[in-house]
Structure formats: structure tokens, C-alpha cells
Design goal:
This protein has about 525 residues and is of the alpha+beta class. It is built from 19 helices and 20 strands. α4 crosses α5, α8 crosses α9 and α11 runs parallel beside α16.
């Protein structure tokens, strides 16, 4: 772990700043587009260097110093990784997004139970609009929901909270102003907590239950009624499935320890040490979908609800597999993409070789070139190395099914609903948008991600401070001809605060709204 209090000289800081800027310009497809162009980028860079103290600064202060420069790119996939691994919980409330506000959706102590559903107004006399403005200097945000979601994470992370509100750094308690569901204004003083897990959280009771997750995965499925007329598929994430782990080696360091921990918790014995054995514990999503869709088809299920409210991303391969079972091989959606190649790109994706990418090209791309994937004017210009549909035949297990055409469009109920939240992002957004393109009905809160933006984060470390940085390497255009949808994809039926209130802040209010709509259409 880095020493956050390590002191760096001005020359070392300048070297890190120049390294950061050079890597951003080399790796990111267009770091200038949202901040006034290339000259504006370099002006900010020079201002950053100019304002450095002659005496230098600590890594911790340097981290805070760099945040606004990176946030100005306005790309949620380009950011500084947290400086501390031992994060604290911060404010002892869970906040969620609805309308244009934050409300308390969970508390840690019974004495705060009456605050569930309250809207956040201010912290230490800093009102919500000012908090949101400050948040835009800490993390790249793509639309108003992006700012709100970033703030929810910040409020439950002590070190990020101090970046947001430096005035509370030496305080153990903070004052929070809220508006209770009754409309009454209230000020509460709460202690800034050490780390507490979500297992201890108190939330409003729910009137509907979600299916349990399949062991060692983020996927669960089941039916809402005994006649199996309404099915539900819960996809909380897109990392823990075996097709991903066998296809994308870069997930290994992050995923394997988590699998081992889950194994030991479940079986009360040491997890296998062998990598392949650990991966084999994780189920194939192909098998999960085969079982689920077979059951739906046999029951002639009318309606499928797909829940991606907690889905903040992973590998979009899962979306392609789901689309294959639901709508068929030809319906797999691939947004218009632009890949920005760089040395970091090829160091990260070692399985991709420029020599292979350049096969059968009318002209060769360079190591730092752009690849215009799936654009009409370049039809036939790109090849299998970057064509996602062609790559599916190489996916372990699913690839054979895809190639054979078996289960293609196996079963699609008459109605498909998708539950969304402001946290639905990255590959979770990819999945939501893919279903939307095929006519699925979105229910919930708009996503924090813009449909026309950047993604596919690569990471590197600054040489002197050892701060880790994430930078986007691709452009995704889900709605190339619609700038409004490309900024905010609004659900067909949006959950509002007033509606949430009628459901008594049920954590599954989006599901209740969907069931209400299904009941209306079936009457």
C-alpha cells in the first residue's frame, strides 16, 4: 500500500502531472471534447503545474490536487482510483436517487429509522446544489444523475467525504438537514462511522421478494406467481460468470480472491488454491439461461422482468448471451464503437495483436491509431479481431452454441420489462440499452451514464506518487442520431418521489411499479 503521507518534491510532482497528461492524451479517445478543446486542456495543465507549491506536497494532498483536472474530462470511466484501501463508511445513511434529489433509503441504527425516505437538504450548512457542484470537481460526471450517484458514493466513503467537505476533516460528528416524508424540516447530528457492512443496514420493509442469486454469481431467476405467468431475472452485476473469467484474463486479480472468500464462507473450508479450480466454481451463465428459458417456454410465460438496478457493469458479453436466448443471433446489438489503440491498450489486452488486427486491411493501423468499428462507411474495413459478433464463436462453452444456432431466439415472452436505477451503468447500461432497442419497457430512474460517451477503462500508475489512474479507451454510441437519448435515457415509466412515497419507500418500488403496470395491461 502506498504511503499517502510521503512527501514529494515539486520536480517529482511536475513529472507525475506531465506523465498523467501524456497518458490521458495517448489512451483516451478524446479528452478535450467536454472541456473546450485541446488548448483548454493544456491551459489547465499549465495552470496545474504553475500553482504547485515550491516546497512540494504529500501524496494525499497531491491526490486531491489532481482530482479537478481529471474530473474536467467529464467521463465517469476516467478517474483516480481511491487513495486508501481501508475506506471508512462516512455518514451512517445509505442515499439513493429519485427525481433530482437524494433520499435516505437505509440507516444503520434503529434511532434513525424514522429518517428513511427523507430528502437530503444540506450537510454542515452546505446545501445540496453546492454539494453537487463540488462533486463535479471530484469525479467526471456525464449527466445530472451521474453527479447525484457520485455524491451517494462520496457520502459513504470517509476519505472522499473529506475531499468534498474539507471543513469537517477533524470533526467526529456532522450536522445534516433533511426534509422528512411528512414535509417537516429537521436537523440531525450524526457520528462519522468506521467501516460497517451493508448487512447491518435497516431499510423499509418490502412487499415483494427477489429471487436468490445462484451461488458464486450475481444472477438470480424465478417466478412472481404460482402459474409462472410473470418471470423475473435478476442481474446484479456482469463479472461473476464463467464465460467472462475464461475470456478476459484481466479480471483475475480482482475476482479470484472474492470467489475464494465466498467459497470459504459457504463451505467452511479452505478454497482451492488452483486458479482453474476456483474459476470452475463459478457457473456458466449459458447454463443459467438455458434452464431459465426452458422453464419459461414450458410454462408459456407472458411477462419477463429483468432487474438491472444494482448492475454497475462488468463484461458486456453477458448482454450478448441474453439477447441471443431472447431474440436470436441476429438481434445481438453492438453500438457504434471507436477503439483508441495505445501501448497501454495492447499491454492490457495481451491476447490482441496489432498484426492480427491489420490482417486484410486496406491500410495498416498503427499502435496509437483509432479503429472505427461497426461504422457503415467502414463496412468490410474491420475484421474479426475487433468485430464483437465474430468473436462470440470463440467464447468458451457459449461459442459452440452460438456457432450451431441452437437456442437462438429460444423464447421471448410477449412483454419484457427492465427495472433500472441511477446506478445502472457501464455494461449494465449496455444490457439495458440492448433490451430497450428491442422494445423492452424501462421502469425506474434514469441511468447515471450517457449513451453516447466513453468506456472500457485501462489503468496505469503515476511513477512518483504511485497514484493509480483509470482512463477510457473506447467511444460508445448507443444513440448516434439522438443527442437527447445519448445524454439521458429516460424510462418509459419513471419512478418519482411521490410514487416512492406511496410505496412507503419499499426498496423494491421499481418492481412494484412494474407489477402495477402489468396488472393494468392484463385487465
Amino acid at each position: 500500500m502506498m504511503n499517502a503521507e510521503k512527501f514529494l518534491s515539486r520536480d517529482e510532482l511536475i513529472a507525475d502531472i506531465r506523465y498523467l497528461a501524456n497518458m490521458i492524451e495517448t489512451v483516451h479517445p478524446d479528452p478535450y471534447i467536454n472541456q473546450g478543446g485541446k488548448i483548454a486542456f493544456h491551459r489547465r495543465l499549465h495552470e496545474l503545474i504553475l500553482k504547485l507549491p515550491s516546497t512540494g506536497m504529500s501524496v494525499r494532498k497531491f491526490y486531491r490536487y489532481l482530482l479537478p483536472f481529471v474530473a474536467a474530462i467529464k467521463d465517469a470511466h476516467t478517474f483516480l482510483y481511491p487513495l486508501y484501501k481501508d475506506q471508512k463508511a462516512g455518514i451512517p445513511f445509505k442515499f439513493d436517487v429519485v427525481d433530482n434529489c437524494l433520499y435516505i433509503s437505509g440507516v444503520y441504527f434503529d434511532m434513525h429509522r424514522h429518517l428513511i425516505g427523507s430528502k437530503l437538504l444540506a450537510i454542515e450548512d452546505v446545501d445540496l446544489s453546492s454539494l453537487l457542484e463540488r462533486q463535479t470537481t471530484l469525479r467526471g460526471c456525464e449527466n445530472p444523475y451521474s453527479v447525484l450517484v457520485s455524491l451517494t458514493y462520496c457520502l459513504q466513503n470517509y476519505h472522499e467525504l473529506i475531499n468534498l467537505l474539507p471543513e469537517i476533516e477533524h470533526k467526529q460528528r456532522v450536522r445534516i438537514n433533511v426534509e422528512l416524508p411528512s414535509g417537516v424540516m429537521k436537523e440531525v447530528e450524526v457520528e462519522i462511522l468506521p467501516h460497517i457492512t451493508y448487512d447491518t443496514m435497516i431499510m423499509a420493509p418490502t412487499r415483494v421478494n427477489l429471487p436468490q442469486l445462484v451461488d458464486f454469481s450475481d444472477i438470480g431467476y424465478g417466478f412472481m406467481d404460482k402459474h409462472k405467468r410473470i418471470a423475473i431475472l435478476r442481474i446484479d452485476g456482469m463479472i461473476f460468470y464463467r464465460e467472462n473469467l475464461t475470456s478476459c484474463k484481466q479480471w483475475m486479480d480482482f475476482v479470484l480472491p472474492k470467489i475464494a472468500k465466498s467459497y470459504e464462507k459457504k463451505f467452511k473450508r479452505p478454497a482451492p488454491k488452483n486458479k482453474e479450480e476456483l474459476i470452475a466454481i463459478v457457473p456458466w451463465v449459458t447454463d443459467i439461461f438455458k434452464n431459465f428459458f426452458t422453464e419459461m417456454k414450458a410454462a408459456k410465460t407472458d411477462t419477463l422482468i429483468i432487474d438491472v438496478r444494482k448492475n454497475t457493469g462488468g463484461n458486456s458479453l453477458l448482454a450478448d448471451i441474453l439477447m441471443y436466448f431472447l431474440y436470436g443471433k441476429e438481434a445481438i446489438f453492438v453500438p457504434s464503437m471507436i477503439v483508441k489503440y495505445s501501448k497501454l491498450y495492447f499491454d492490457t489486452y495481451k491476447e490482441q495483436k496489432l498484426s492480427e488486427i491489420n490482417k486484410n486491411r486496406p491500410f495498416e493501423l498503427t499502435e496509437t491509431d483509432y479503429d472505427f468499428v461497426d461504422f457503415k462507411e467502414f463496412k468490410g474495413y474491420c475484421n474479426k479481431a475487433v468485430d464483437k459478433r465474430s468473436q462470440l464463436v470463440d467464447v468458451a462453452y457459449f461459442g459452440k452454441i452460438y456457432k450451431s444456432g441452437k437456442y437462438s431466439g429460444y423464447y421471448c415472452p410477449k412483454n419484457v420489462f427492465v427495472l433500472t436505477s441511477a446506478r445502472t451503468a457501464s455494461s449494465g447500461y449496455y444490457l439495458m440499452a440492448s433490451l430497450y432497442k428491442k422494445g423492452a419497457i424501462l421502469v425506474g430512474v434514469p441511468s447515471c451514464q450517457s449513451g453516447n460517451g466513453f468506456g472500457e477503462t485501462l489503468s496505469f500508475i503515476l511513477p512518483n506518487s504511485k497514484i493509480r489512474v483509470g482512463v477510457s479507451s473506447m467511444v460508445f454510441l448507443f444513440f448516434p442520431d439522438d443527442t437527447e437519448k445519448g445524454k439521458i435515457l429516460r424510462p418509459h415509466y419513471e419512478l418519482t418521489y411521490d410514487k416512492l412515497k406511496t410505496y412507503e419507500f419499499d426498496p423494491n418500488s421499481e418492481l412494484r411499479l412494474a407489477l402495477e403496470l402489468i396488472g393494468q395491461t392484463s385487465e
